[in-house]
Amino acid sequence: MFKNIRADIRCVFDRDPAARNTFEVLTTYPGLHALMHYRLAHWCWTHHLKYLARVISFFSRWFTGVEIHPGATIGSGFFIDHGMGVVIGETAEIGNNVTLYHGVTLGGTTWNKGKRHPTLKDGVVIGAGAKVLGPIEIGENGRVGSNAVVTKDVPAGATAVGIPGRIIVKNEKETDEQGRRRKAIADKIGFDAYGMTDEMPDPIARSIYNLLDHMHAVDAKIERMSCALGELGHKECTGELPELKTALDAEAEQQVNASK
Questions:
Q1: What share of the chain is helix, strand, coil (3-state, %, to 5)?
Q2: pLDDT mean across residues, the chain
Q3: pTM for this structure?
């Protein structure tokens, strides 16, 4: 139990840039408080102290605004951002490194006993206000958009959006190289497109991606023209353009700057 609590505290710093120190996290994060109460209540639940577990869960809901049934199963590195209004049912199963935002409901769709709540695999992220209902499964690294209502399985790595939730699958025609090239161009000009991915059916995002593809083509053409003019003796065209950094290069540079 205590090992999971330490992992829960560490993951706050990974997923919330507002977190400054451990003392602040321990004393002012209601999502973490609710999770610590759950860990204690779940221990009581599994050791046949079910009434005590329900009492702990009740007071946790009162103090934090988060309701987690002590019978739910939650892995390590679980993070509830903001927390208010989160509801997790009795038979819900949550893997490692899962993130829920405020207003999320992991609920059931039947009054019958047995498995009736969702299963979230490792790395799942559920957006604010989303409702994931029934004994369905959200695959590893799956995403559920804000305010979506999902009642069907979501494949690993896919995203569910809308009411009712519909699955957005990554465009199979797009290669990994194309995605890396777009990111490199975006990094070069200092633009992140708000962290949006091509999985989202947003016409503005698609226009931005088309623009990035066009910029890459223009860069390549200018480079070929410069090389040709340089061979003819024109020194004005021999200057090099700024190199595109890969994600690994950028990460390595950040580590070097942080160590200074």
A1: 45, 15, 40
A2: 80
A3: 0.63
